[in-house]
């Protein structure tokens, strides 16, 4: 097994006011994520609260991805799509 990683992972956890509305916004932002080197998004929802969302994504360029997740564009998109409070954002190898 090769111990070198070619991608990192990005997890974002947050609550939303309405999953369906949030999902439309998330899907509409796909090209922005790709441009930042963020791909292969997998969305999970809590069984107890369907508006509790966890997104796991692959990252090919951590510097670009960090710039993207700190951007005003993403903050505005999250707010518009109904994200409640501040999301938990983590990078991991």
3D architecture notes:
By secondary structure, the protein is α+β, with helices and mostly antiparallel strands. It has one domain: Alpha-Beta Plaits. 37% of the residues lie in helices and 38% in strands. It contains four helices and four strands; from the N terminus they run βααββααβ. It has helices at residues 19-28, 30-35, 62-69, 72-81, and strands spanning 8-16, 38-45, 52-59, 83-92. It has a four-stranded antiparallel beta sheet. α1 (19-28) runs antiparallel to α4. The relative contact order is 0.31. The model has no long low-confidence stretch (mean pLDDT 93).
CATH architecture: 2-Layer Sandwich
Counting structural domains, the number is 1
Low-confidence stretches: none
CATH topology: Alpha-Beta Plaits
Helix and strand succession? EHHEEHHE
Largest sheet: 4 strands, antiparallel
The number of distinct β-strands equals 4
In the CATH hierarchy, what is the class? Answer: Alpha Beta
The average pLDDT is 93
First-to-last CA distance: 16 Å
- In the sheet with the most strands, the strands line up as 2-3-1-4
Radius of gyration: 13 Å
State which percent range the strand residues make up. 35-45%
Structural class: alpha+beta
Shape: globular
How many DSSP H or I helices? 4
Helix content: 25-40%
């Amino acid at each position: 097994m090769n111990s070198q990683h070619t991608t990192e992972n990005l997890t974002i956890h947050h609550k939303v006011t309405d999953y369906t509305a949030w999902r439309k916004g998330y899907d509409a932002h796909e090209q922005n994520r790709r441009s930042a080197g963020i791909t292969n998004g997998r969305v999970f929802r809590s069984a107890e609260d369907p508006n509790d969302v966890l997104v796991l994504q692959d990252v090919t360029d951590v510097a670009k991805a960090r710039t993207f997740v700190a951007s005003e564009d993403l903050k505005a998109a999250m707010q518009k799509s109904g994200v409640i409070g501040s999301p938990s954002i983590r990078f991991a190898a």
